[in-house]
Design goal:
Strand content: under 5%
Radius of gyration: 21 Å
Structural class: mainly alpha
Number of helices: 2
Number of strands: 0
Helix content: 55-70%
Shape: rod-shaped
């Protein structure tokens, strides 16, 4: 691994630690879960 690659990776990781980029797929919810479905079916 050359020094430029190591420096680039270090800077990228440091930037992500200080100001993480928003990725919607990390926070995406698929919908209500089975507990919610059970609650609504009995009412």
């Amino acid at each position: 691994m050359n020094i430029l690659t190591l420096l680039t990776r270090t800077i990228t990781r440091l930037r992500e630690f200080v100001a993480p980029s928003y990725r919607p797929e990390r926070h995406y919810m698929r919908g209500p879960g089975p507990a919610c479905a059970r609650r609504s079916s009995f009412q």
